[in-house]
């Protein structure tokens, strides 16, 4: 799981920078908790840019932290793959850090579907981004994150996996309105403390 530095994360969510950083890390903690609890997951590596973020993320047990020296997402993922060690390896998957509604069962379901394909992908709720990229070995993963990443992954051979729109694996958080349906316990707790998000209205429509 790659984690962008909390100083840059979630810039489209309008909160004071310290609160926005805290929210980004709490969402990552909820995401990590679901990943490490999934029966289909053997090892969870969290690739971080900021060593300080690792202190917060390590509060969720069962992960390996790896510090990358790049802020480019695809390069950070490749760094993480290299850190897994030599050899053909087994199945691997990449999950972003902003899926606080993800459950272990949903991830296990997706990975079970992914096992039938050399390389597979799950679209975000908008159908344009990628919330899961899986492959049967590290050398097959070929991450193509960026604008329109779902289409880019499909174009390079990844098989789309069909999951319900309400699956936590599709409900990434990029905007204020995405926060209203979050179910992750840590994220819900901090949102309650912040009394956030505010009631829906024209000012906040579309985040």
H/E element order: EHEHEHEHEEHEH
Task: Tell me the span between the first and last alpha carbons.
Answer: 25 Å
Radius of gyration: 16 Å
Beta strands, count: 7
Q: Strand pairing plus helix content: what structural class?
A: alpha/beta
Work out the helix count.
6
At the first level of CATH, the class is: Alpha Beta
According to CATH, the fold-level topology is: Spore Coat Polysaccharide Biosynthesis Protein SpsA, Chain A
Would you identify the CATH H-level superfamily? Spore Coat Polysaccharide Biosynthesis Protein SpsA, Chain A
- The general outline is globular
Task: Estimate the strand proportion.
Answer: 5-15%
For the biggest β-sheet, the strand order reads 4-6-5-7
Give the helix proportion (percent range): 25-40%
Mean pLDDT: 91
Characterise the protein shown here:
This protein is of the alpha/beta class and 207 residues long. The chain has one domain: Spore Coat Polysaccharide Biosynthesis Protein SpsA, Chain A. The protein has helices spanning 17-37, 51-57, 73-83, 104-114, 149-155, 185-194; strands at 2-3, 45-48, 64-67, 92-94, 119-123, 130-135, 159-160. Strands 4-6-5-7 form a 4-stranded mixed beta sheet. Strands 1-2-3 form a 3-stranded parallel beta sheet, with helices on both faces. Strand 5 and strand 6 (130-135) form a beta hairpin. Helix 1 packs antiparallel against helix 6. It is globular. It starts with a strand and ends in a 13-residue tail after the last helix.
